[in-house]
Specification:
It is a single chain. Helices cover 46% and strands 22% of the residues. It is α+β, with helices and mostly antiparallel strands. The protein has a domain at 31-144. Strands 1-2-3-4-5 form a 5-stranded antiparallel sheet. A hairpin with a 4-residue loop joins strand 3 (111-117) and strand 4 (122-130). The longest helix is centred in the first third of the chain and has 25 residues, at 30-54.
């Protein structure tokens, strides 16, 4: 019993300072998180605009529906979330790329383009056509694109500074 009491007090004394320290961790404000979300949205729009312009693609919001990876996953779940769904999987696998911004799918009936910018700023457009069961790559365009700068917000810089100071304590 005595050993158990000593063990419990040791744990208590050891863990209490950690709890206090965890509460002092720097955090991003909800306003900053919202600003980051807006910045990321605008950044991705600029990346897509560069890809469409540089590759001379005829993609517009009237003829194509813009679909993110999250939109695709949500649609998959809404329509049953089948484990073996070649239609979904043939599109989903296209999103697995290293990119600046988020890869984005532009879809119209039986045709789609997946657009993304490689880390070296190469613009890529993967042209897809719908067959009976799945989407098939029918072409790919690549061309050097413009560098789109991703700027840290002031609140992010302050957060990083506070986090470094906290870690060095």
């Amino acid at each position: 019993m005595k050993k158990m009491t000593i063990l419990m007090w040791s744990l208590f004394v050891t863990l209490c300072p950690l709890n206090t320290r965890a509460e002092d961790l720097p955090r991003l404000s909800s306003d900053c998180l919202e600003e980051m979300k807006n910045r990321d949205f605008l950044y991705n729009k600029a990346v897509m605009r560069d890809i469409i312009n540089e590759l001379g693609l005829d993609i517009d919001s009237q003829n194509y529906l813009e679909v993110s990876d999250k939109d695709l996953d949500a649609a998959h779940l809404i329509y049953g979330g089948k484990e073996v769904d070649e239609n979904y999987q043939s599109l989903h696998e296209q999103f697995i790329v290293a990119s600046r911004g988020k890869p984005t799918l532009f879809v119209k009936p039986s045709e789609a383009y997946l657009l993304y910018k490689k880390p070296d700023n190469t613009n890529v457009a993967v042209h897809l056509k719908l067959t009976d069961l799945k989407w098939v790559v029918v072409g790919k365009k690549k061309k050097e694109g413009n560098a789109i700068h991703y700027k840290l917000l002031k609140c992010e810089k302050e957060y990083i500074k506070k986090k470094r100071e906290f870690s060095s304590q």
